[in-house]
Amino acid sequence: MRAAVLGSGPVGQTAALLLARWGVPVVLVDEHEVRDPVGSKAICQQRDTLDVWASLGAGCLAEEGLTWTTARTFHRETELFSLKLPDGGSALPPFVNISQARVEEVLDELIARQPLIDVRRGHRVTGVTQPGCVEIECETKDGPRRIEADYAIACAGSRGDTVRRALGQHLDGFSFRDLFLICDIRADLPGWAAERRFHFDPPWNPGRQVLIHPCPGSQFRIDWQVPDDYDLAAEETGGALDRRIRAIIGDRPYEVVWRSVYRFHTRLVDRMRVGRVLLAGDCAHLVAPFGARGLNSGVADAENAAWKLAWVLRGDAGEDLLESYHAERHAAAAENAAVTTATMDFLVPQDDGQRARRLDVLTRAAGDPAVHEQVDSGRLAEPFWYTGSPLTTSDPTRPFAGRPPRGALPPPGPGVLLPDVTVGSGRLRDLARQGFLLLTTPGVRAEGIRSAEIPVGGALGARPGEAWLVRPDAYVAAVLRVGDQRAHLVPGVRGVTRVVDDVGDRAHAAE
User: Region (Disordered) spans which residues (predicted)?
Assistant: First the structure.
């Protein structure tokens, strides 16, 4: 058995490492001979992404990254409000700012130590076919090459048009008209390292926005919204870029480490599973970066795809399990598109009505704290909740109330990611990521599956006589009770689980 991963950005690297952790040999294909180590690119890594990387041995990313604790929001020359971010009770920070280049470096080091991963650099994919397996045609400096695998995860990024076309997919959606200028600068800015600053319509960028993020090593990432005819080269030559930066940081020394201009998009493929190939990350969906839902969502794609492919390749599940990848992760991508589109409509109003609403909200927010929630500078990345998934058995006593308030999490239950809590001397999610897990309350025994006892109440809110079935990606699949007679709780996954009441010795769950 063998899987292929097409593209070795952070999503592809994560997918390859996860597959190898499940014992699947991987060929990791990338068109570049060497990496470009310059530029912050995707910088904001959310707690659950850090959790996945820590499970692979990359816990240093959470330690090296910088977590700002205060979000300050301005309109013109007035500070509207500032928010202190809660830590959420986890051992991991809610997020860190760390450059994509550093993430790639750390993950590459792990890949180099993993004997199950065969890295093929300098392999440009020119075609993908599926004649009972996956055949990948590549062009290299030594001529054409063909790679065969049983299944593949396509992580070829936004420019993976060749891969998408071969699978009959393309990124449908729209692009925002304005451009965004991004500069990484190195400077001594006392007090700024713990703050994220968002400016609506500042006098030094009238009619548009500016976002300032602190990064490790006295670096700061500055994003300016600029007109669609913006000319970076002309600004650099004429000194306007220097004036643009000094309008923010004042008359102090600084160094431009990296700069680039981007146009933001909202785009999504129709299918994230095409036969034996699963599309992930920017190869499948693009969203505006406000809220950091790009890379973080891609890592969630990788984890979802990896355990399902591993179960299929090992013979522990039928191929139909892969269809749930599309069902779950396409819904997640659609949710991210909706959230980020609402943000962009606030940041870059599309018509007079939106412009009037934004001005009204920003004006009222200066004096009315009740309006602060309506100021949309981006809802930070959060897990997607698989409450509507075919792999989730709903619990009528724990109805899902929908998207929680910004910064909050829904109560634990079917379809929800386990809270990051400790069990005994370890973390509950680490237990879950070793395979299917049954969490039992006192008096309930399990047969045929790994299990761990949890107290009644506690972080899960478990009730007497319950057992919680948890997937290998730490999502709750079902909550079971003694006396239930429910089968196929995770359709397509083989193996029988008996959950037995110590008193009545009654089996109540299978498969």
Answer: 387-414
